[in-house]
Amino acid sequence: MLKALLTSTEHLKLQNLQKTIELLQESSALLLIAVDTKNLSKQFEVYFFSSIDNLQKIRREDIEHEYNIIKFIAKKQDKKNYFYVNLFEVENITKIIKLLNYHRDSIFENEMKIILLFDSKSFELLKQNAYDIFSRNNFSYQFTDHSYTKTIIKENNKLSTAIERYKSQANLSPKLEIELLFTIASEAYAISDLELALDYYEKAKFLAKEHDFLFEYSAIVGNIGLIYMGKGNNDLALKYYKKALEIDREIGYSQGVASNLGNIGIIYQSKGDNDLALKYYKEALEIDKKIGYSQGVASNLGNIGIIYQSKGDNDLALKYYKEALEIDRKIGYNQGVAIHLGNIGMIYQSKGDNDLALKYYKEALEIAREIGYNQGVAIHLVNIGNIYQSKGDNDLALKYYQEALEIDREIGSTQGVAILLGNIGNIYQSKGDNDLALKYYKEALEIAREIRYNQGVAIHLGNIGNIYQSKDDNDSALKYYKEALKIDREIGYSQGIASDLGNIGNIYRSKGDNDSALKYYKEALKIDREIGYSQGLASDLGNIGNIYRSKGNNDSALKYYQEALDIHREIGYIQGVATQLRNIGNIYGDKGEKSTAKKYYLEALAIAKEIGYKDAVEMIEKNLHSL
To answer: Of the spans 4-8, 183-187, 481-485, 606-610, which averages the highest pLDDT?
Structure first.
């Protein structure tokens, strides 16, 4: 049954594991096994007890008191038997790993023989927090339950051909074996099967390091960084990227240097440090232009566009995206084409042109499906879902989000799963089902915490805060907003800090404490001005205008609303334009200048109807009826 869940190459790995167990009968041993499903965990347990005569099982309840596996086994003073511990999804895994690392030398001093079975997430935690165990131990094996991927492999000719070629080779030279393993991993990554790709890259990495093939080792290490970034583990990804960069600089491989600089830029961008990210992107772009590597040039242009978009400079971002798109179309790099089309769609969406955005998203989705780029398929499904959500069609948005969620779960994109759970939570919140929304937000938060996706942790904390605020539980909301603010400050995510400050300001405003609200809004305004985040800046100005209006200071309110309106028009954020036109209409309504108020309301109503902004349409129509 076990072999039916594994690929043919993993059968070879299983044989190697069995040989290792036999060879180490007379010495100390620590064998680390990682599996990705509970079913595979159960099948390995059956396999071990049917193939190892001298195997004793340590039950979870035996170690629950102290969580010290090595100390428990040492008390038995048994040098003959293997001891097996199944740690798949065990509680308190962090404490277990800490004690395992601390007492690691006792394994060899007391001639113990231990087999530990982990789930994939815990195995990654072990790599991060108990590196010394890996430095002293070469016997670690990762296996993937391929029962769900067999159809994908069968339907993907390149991947199945690569696997069959590897299977059929005998007496491989180390270099050829690395090449074949690398090809399989790359094809698996191309169809977004991250676990399968990681499995083959790890095997190739071991061989490359063993034979001191620096060029191959660097490429493999960099690609493993890509895997961890795709899984949402940015800290581990950064570690791999920096190692690959160090090697590429050492061997003078410019294309690799540029690639790793770009990847490091992506990590810093995800941490909210746009200026540092931009520095890495521009350095990478300069190198790629110098060596004439067009695909790298296009990638870096796209990344620079993302930075300018996050700063609110949509026109400059669009310029970079279109330049990148032109290059990738010219060289026939369709994955890049799909990415840039999606980015251009985001620009038009932020400008309020949802129909044009949808056109770009659907074109990107079609290309991603054609080339089997499943991670891209999920991204573009999310983008399309976002459009329908903004149009008020929550049911259609939910359909797209759920399709994307299914893909991200299949390909092992944990960060994508967390993001989509948050998106689905947003849908249920907008439907008024706060309890179901809260369930999704908490599940998303739990995953983000597990993979140390701190930016996501802060986002989901903010979402949970929004739920409690909508329930009029301002104290609970404030607690979550402040926790989100603390995390965003720790990771230096300025845009998130400003957003959290704005949320806290909203709480104080709802409590009637306008002075405290104004303090937080102005602090958010200062940050958004400093980082050049125009959309956030306009939101802060609108919030401050609301405070002055509630204080009866209509002239000051009008000044802030007008500045917010000017920014929204400048960056092409049509939804924001409609909001501020309505706010200005409210001011003139308060002043009794009904004809001027009506003029602003009608302009806001026309825009809201044009972009399908249903909530605004309802509010503006009420304003008009009240005149």
So the answer is: 481-485
**Residue 55 lies in domain:** 1-147
Determine the Cα–Cα distance for residues 121 and 116; give it in Å rounded to an integer: 14
The total number of structural domains in the chain stands at 1
The rounded distance, in Å, linking the Cα atoms of 463 and 470 is 11
Domain with residue 93: its CATH number is 3.40.50.300
Query: What pTM was estimated for this model as a whole?
Result: 0.63
Does the pLDDT value for residue 48 go beyond 70? yes
Separation of alpha carbons 357 and 359, rounded Å? 5
Query: DSSP 3-state assignment of 1?
Result: coil
| Residue 453 tokens, joined | 């996706």
Q: Is 25 part of a structural domain of the chain?
A: yes
3-state secondary structure of 231: coil
Closest CA to 491 of 322, 269, 186, 190: 269
Q: Is residue 575 part of a domain?
A: no
Tokens of 110: 């007391």
Please report whether residue 110 resides in a domain: yes
List pLDDT tens digits, range 274-298.
889 999 999 999 999 999 999 999 9
CB atoms within 10 A of CB 416: 23
Q: How far is CA 131 from the centre of its chain?
A: 24
Task: Report the Cα 249 to chain-centroid distance in Å.
Answer: 28
Q: Residue type at 327?
A: I
Residue 276 inside a domain? The answer is no
Instruction: Name the amino acid, one letter, at 96.
Output: I
Which residues, including other chains, have CB under 8 Å from residue 56's CB and lie 6 or more apart?
78, 81, 82, 83, 84
Sign of CA dihedral 244, 245, 251, 252: positive
CA dist., res. 477 & res. 504, Å (int): 9
Q: How far is CA 484 from the centre of its chain?
A: 17
Q: Which of 291, 298, 239, 233 is nearest to 264 (CA)?
A: 239
Token couple for 22? 């036999």
Q: How far is CA 166 from CA 12, 43, 184, 360, 529, in A?
A: 11, 25, 9, 40, 56
